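Your task:
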Amino acid sequence: MPSPNSLNIVFMGTPEIASESLSRIAELEKLNIITLKSVYTKPPVWNNKKKEFTSSPVDALARSYGIKARTPKTLKANTEEINFLKSLDLDIIIVVAFGLILPVEILNIPKYGVLNLHPSLLPDLRGPSPIQYAILKRMKFSGVSIMALDAGVDTGPIVAQQRTDIDKNEYFSTLYERMSLTGALLLAEVVKSLFKFRTNIYKYAYRQDNSYLDYSSSFYLTELIKPDEMKVDFFVDDPLDIYAKIRAFTESGGTFFAFGNKKIKIIEAKLIADKNNKEIKEECLNVQEESSVFSYCDYPDDSDLTSYLSHEGAIQDIIPDKPGTIIIANKSGLLVTTVKKGVYIQLLKLKPEGKNIMSYIDFINGFRIKQGAECR
C-alpha cells in the first residue's frame, strides 16, 4: 500500500535515457518515498525494418511495472489529459526527454513543480542535441542538469548539476550511457530531498545565468541534426572535425562519404598523426585550460605509423598531398589522407549503402579497394 506521506508523481519520458531515470525513480516507491501515479510516453512508431509499430523504452519498462503508459499525440489543449492529471493530486511531474511540450496549464498542476533532466551543464548546450554537440565541439567535459521546467526551451532555473568528463576518443553511445546513469542517480537524489523538505522546487533553484559555467565563449544552442550535416568531405573538412562527426553521429544514422556512386557510412575510425610533424603536433595539442573546448590528435608509437606507411604497399615517399586519398588498403589498415599533411583517418568499421556493417578488411575485399582510390 502507498504511504500517505509519499510524493505523488507522474513520469514523462520516451527514449533509453528516460527509461534509466524511470527505473531509479520506481525504486523510490519501495522506500515509500514516491507513489508512481502514471507514466506518459510518446505513441508507438512504425519500424519499417520490422514492419510493425514499436513502443518506446519507457513504455516497455512501464508495462514491466504493471502500468499502462498514456501515449497522447499532444498535450496542447488536451482537456482529457489535463483533467486526468488534475485528478491525481500530484506533488511532482518528472520529465526526461519526453518529446512533447507541456503547456503552462500542466506546469501549474503539481504542488512542488515540474522537474526536467537535461544532458548538459546548462546554460551550455540547450536544445535537442546536447550530447552530439558536446562531442562535435570537442569539449573536455559536459554533464547533466536537473531544472525546474518552465515555458521556455531548457531555460528553467537549475536545481542540481553533475559534471562528467569526456574522453578524447569517446563515441556518442558511451557518453549517452554514462549521462543516462548520472542523470538518473542525480534525479533520484533531488526527489529524496523534495520528500524530506516538501517545498516548491523554485525555492532552491537558481537562474541559469548564475551557473558556475561562466565562460561566455561556449554557450551553444544545439539544433536537430540534419542528414547533410553527417556528410564528411575529406577535401574540405578539418580532420579533427571529421573524427568528431564520426564519434557523434554513429547512433543517429552515421557519418558518411561518397565512394564511387555509393554512400559509405563510417561506424568506427581513428585519428592518427605523424608525431614527428611539429606543426601538426603543436596545433593538435593546443589545449586551453580555461576552456572546455580542446583540439586533439592521437600520436601512435613511431613504429606503428612507420609500419602503416611502409607496409607491402611500399608508399614511403610517394604519399600524395591530395586529401581524401586512400594510401593504405590491406590487412594492416585502411588509411585516408586529410587536408592536413601528416594527419590521417584510419577507417575501422563501415556500412556501405544497402549492406551490413563490416570490418575494413571485408570492405577492402568486397569493393576491391586499391591504394590511390579517392573518398569524396
Remarks:
- Residues 19 and 61 are 7 Å apart (CA to CA).
- The first strand starts at residue 7 and ends at 13.
- The first helix runs from residue 16 to 30.
